[in-house]
Records
---
Amino acid sequence: MRILLLTTLTLLTACDVAAPMGGSLADGLVQPVTYDGAGGSQAYIIDSGDGRVVLIDTGLDEDAGPILDALADLDRTADDVAAVFITHGHPDHIGGAAQFDAPLYARPEERPLITGEQNPERPFPNFDEPEATGLDIDVPVADGEVYGFGYRTVEVFALPGHTAGHTVYLSAGVLFMGDSASATSEGELNGATWLFSRDTAENDASLAALRDRLDRERDRIHTLAPAHSEALLEGLAPLDRYLDGV
Ligand SMILES: [Zn+2]
């Protein structure tokens, strides 16, 4: 009996800290779009409450198929997208952006990656010729700005490190972390992946600065949503634990 109880408690704890992969967040206001296969990324659809939606990133697929399917499940189409916010210009985050007429929001520091004028900076040399994407930033955003869509706001936080112009967004109590962090299956948070990052030390410093900024209003954040793993439902606590160990 005691073993059964302990097992039940363990399962409950695991469910409490991490959202099921692909399950909706923020009481259904946020729908993650899960991609199959290696290198696949999640995009997120935020319900702005006025019949429209806001996207965070656009995944790997150039036809934006997974996002369009997820929009159809919500009885929405590409025309209902009011804005596309980009965390950073890596190909698995901007792949489907051309499928949406909505303005593309990003920090200007990220422009060379979004346009394809520059290759991603990584810890090893890349001799490939950069390839133009046909994309550009329509609305340059800056740290500290807040944008309103319907009943929802999207707040902008600069988080340089993984890329120079990497940006984290806060909406509906969910902190969309892009590739600045990833979650483990045990409900812990890790920083940016070294192999794919420009500067992981800068990323860690940016995460610490962000935690300090949000510390006094931490009740506003209930979910951490990295791009390549499930979301964590413990507010800023996983970020605190990660930073304690850095
Ligand atoms: Zn990336």
---
Amino acid sequence: MRRSLIGIGLFLFFGAFVHETAAQDRLPIIDMHVHTMDGSVEDQIAVMDEFHIVKAFLSGTLEEVYSFTAAAPGRFIPSPMFPVYGINGFPDIDSLRVEYLAGRLQGMGEITSQYLGIPPNAPSLEPYFALAEELDLPVLIHIAGFGAPNPTFRLSAGHPLLLEEVLVRHPKLRIYLENAGYPFLHEMIALMMQYPQVHADLSTITRHVPREGFHDYLSALVRAGYGKRLMFGTDSAPSWLPEAIESIESASFLTDEQKRDIFYNNAARFLRLSEEEIAAHHQE
Ligand SMILES: [Zn+2]
């Protein structure tokens, strides 16, 4: 109970802080990590409107994803999440292709194979990376040194350098790693240095890691030269959004321009949004 009261207090505090900022600036944000299963369509759209989230990379089961896109056309980048422990396995590749060619799906992932102890270089993932490269899809994959409790989750399947063979085989793959591979800092720096197509999101790291530790990690990646390849995300639960925004806003080592890069510009470039769409986002 006490914990929840503190949580509500923090939510109200951060909510007031961020809401005021957003209301003053009205600068758009792209959320690169949203799941359908963490809230209703109405809740998700309401929180996006409140904090000026103009677009979100949305992953979940196809049925859920399609109900979100029907409710808010153009607002989401619809993507299949797989394989999900106890929910779904690896989707049929030919059926997926049909969905992409019809425009009903636009991204791939979150690929959650680490939750089944499957490393990114496993043969079972190869057809999906090949399809993503062929169709030029943005791909989100969970490769990191932590994850939700799950009996088949394995840290050892989340080492960033396990992605290297995939990047060599698919040099045009547009891929981003959850939580910038936290806490594998040096491996991430090496991966991003050698493979310029690698991007990263800053999602649950904004709240599951003590703030100082998160800022240390973010600061190290920016100092290493990758401030243009880090993208804001929440990993859902709309109630976490204020704290996620505040975690970037409060990073005193970032310039305003670097914050805008993380909140919007890097994702806009990575997603190849049109100039018209970017202009429209800044007029809303
Ligand atoms: Zn996720």
